[in-house]
Amino acid sequence: MVKNVPVLDLDAIIDDPGTRIIVCCGSGGVGKTTTAAALGLRAAERGRCAVVLTVDPARRLAQSMGLSELDNTPRLIKGVEGAGTGKLYAMMLDMKRTFDEIIEAHADPERARQILTNPFYQSLSSSFSGTQEYMAMEKLGQLRRSGEWDLIIVDTPPSRSALDFLDAPERLGRFLDGRFIRMLTAPAKAGGRSAFKLLNAGFGLVAGALTKLLGAQVLKDLQTFVSALDAVFGGFRTRAEQTYKLLQAPGTAFVVVAAPERDAMREASYFVERLAEERMPLAGVVINRVHRSPAAVLSAARSTAAAEDLESRGEHELTSAVLRLHADRMQLAAREQREQDHFTSAHPTVPVARVPAMPGDVHDLDGLREVGTLLAAQ
Amino acid sequence: MSSRDTDWDGVRLHVVTGKGGTGKTTVAAALALALAAEGRKVLLIEVEGRQGIAQVFDLPPLPYEERKIAVAPGGGDVYALALDPEEAMLEYLEMFYGMRRTGRALSKLGIVDFATTIAPGFRDVLVTGKTTEAVRRKGKNGRRIYDAVVLDAPPTGRVVRFLNVTNEVAGLARVGPIKNHADLVSGVVASPETAVHFVTLLEEMPVQETLDGITELRRAGLPAGGVFINMVRGSLLPEAALDAAAAGRFDPAELALGLKAAGLAEGGSGTAVAEALAQEVTEHARRAELERQERTSLDAADRPRYELPLLSDGVDLAGLYELAETMREQGAA
After folding, report:
1. Which residue of B264, B266, B290, B294 to mutate against A (max A Cβ within 10 Å)?
2. Domain boundaries along the sequence of chain B
3. Which of A82, A280, B143, B260 is most buried, judging by how many CB atoms fall within 10 Å of its CB?
4. Domain B13-233+310-329, CATH homologous superfamily name and number
5. Do B102 and A209 touch (CB under 8 A)?
6. pTM for the complete prediction?
């Protein structure tokens, strides 16, 4: 076991009025959304005015907070306890709605209509693999600018590649500044004649190939879309960059969520390294679903040996079954410990909080409160 | 084909999906091994650029190339391919249009990046296109090169959109070569030669996603396959003891006697250990009860089910073979 791993004190983080944003990231299936919601509830019950922004469409989460469904508007959660004036709001990102609103807000009605009805826009706004990440950033910026909440907790999309949401603004930038986009928009905005000619010659070649591939109508739709969107995107990118800077600022705390399994811990390592590269402030790692045994004094080896002994004598069947069960549990705990040790030896300075595995899923505020207590009790 | 009857005789394309964390790649890999058993040839494809296949087989990263990676029980070959959309696009351009050089130029201009950014439907059609090409590919003797193709597909939440390429592309290209290509793909994907399998755990969220996924799949007219319940923990305890524990009535007294008999009660610690173990039994019983409920929920899907044990040493190569064997015993392959 790796010694002296620093402890992640989540209460200190949520109690610090300087903490304005907490970003929970991690691979899929590690309890990220539940962690975000539990932190939100705990923060509210300790006096913060918090909003949880989730991208998880699971209705269970909404129900656990007493709402039938979450939508694109922060909703007040009832049943928050605590002596202070804390409040909890929750919302689920609707990426298409968020995208539509941006277009409507930044383009004149005619151009907005052109964009909203374009087939490429519809595809982009509902299924672009980075749209969700991008819109989560956009929404985060909106919530922050509104000033209505003093703590925003974001649950990031379970991205294929770990930090897609950080890459989204850059990807969007690359997309818009790419030579191809410039070619597509060139005929509309080229000032100098020579530039126009040069780009157009290239464009002819590419357009020919694309027409062959996609058909002429597709290309025309694409061109209309790009030139319409181009006018809107300037403000878009500026805001994305602002949000990115906001994430690097001291008021932000990144919490990497993991489970004590090989893949999840490997992803956690990757997140920690990427966050360091991007100079994003990492608070620590939460390891969910850690198996422990109340009878840890009895080792797996002794337990198995005793079970074999009883079995060979044909006595105490129940006890031998329980001893085997216990040995399994101890082995699982040992394996989980090894996976955690791999991580902590590679990242010895990263604070860690561990949450024991619970038998069932969280169904209500009490359940979230319990998770919050476990998160804080390190 | 061997003389054994399996649940999926006649299926050539096995698509494996599942919620994140359920062990989708492991199950896809074990299924490929199981299908290749006894002298058959199977291609295992991954599409998300994670190099998951290389990880489960403990190999260096795989290139964009069909490469033999494992020998199946009883002789048989598993090939693997890590699909890259950009390479697939270049190959597609060359194969259908003889446009290799133009392809490189398009790639240099960032067109592939562009296409996958703005219209993931294009990306998906390239990936599924390459997959169905491998399914249909025939050797000189007129027989299919691969007896089966296993696709480690995107997670449950995205899989229907991923497979339903014609629909995705239709919005963008109503006519033209991409549309024709998509039609060809969906001819395979929507046929009885394909089965879409779901990997789940006996937990509330993955089970719910599986049920939702199957419903969505059926609505899209795509063929639902089996449900693989992964990481199942066998119960060692007798039913009666489990029931008593779940109801909070497990009596540690008998356990204390047993511990004493086993020589684990030295210094009078027997009672304390018995109580701690009883607590462990109660937690185990509660979990077993929840698992029972999830199994009942899965009945609604009405799909063949396979149970894969939790491997106590984690998944290594030996574990993969063990899972493959379990699949064969249960008729999954």
Report:
1. B264
2. 13-233+310-329, 239-287
3. A280
4. P-loop containing nucleotide triphosphate hydrolases (3.40.50.300)
5. yes
6. 0.84
